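Task card 7
Instruction: Convert sequence to structure tokens.
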Amino acid sequence: KTAYEIRPRDWSSDVCSSDLVSPRTITVNLENEVTNKVPITTRAVGQLPIGYELGQMSPVINSVTVRGPESLVALVSEAVAEVNVTGLTAGVEPSVTLKAVGAGGSEIRGVRIDPTTAKVALQVIQSTIVRTVPLTVDVTGVPDTGYRVSSITTSPATVQIQGAVQTIQAIDRLTLPPVDVAGARADIARSLAIPL
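Output:
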């Protein structure tokens, strides 16, 4: 790193005078241009839809070359690829612009990255699903003589359940606690807890 002092030229004409030049000297620092290899790291920004979670996320290439003034290149510890995952429901491999970042996480400007972009392989896993299933209810006992159970209805007739994919796929209905109709001579309405 070398500092040079530059003075303005002397003006001898009547129109311009060196007295009008300010500042009288300018200091210019010259540095060697250097290169350095740094690793690529990935960061997810945004939010996945409910029921999905982020799987493995890795760059297709592991490192890039940073080029620029020696003092700035020395500050760069990694090249960060930020991937927007908002709304994703399946794996993707986008090409992402890289940013030179220092140890504290701040962007280092004034350097060049080669290549400027990198592909990132991203997995999105469906961790839970939502499914609509019917409610069913059984009866126990026998109505009074001359009466019978003509129909059984629930309100609501269906409910939505959410959970792990394998668990929810195995459920095709929810059965409510049984209703005792022993000796009944009229319609019966009961509030029943939905099993969780």
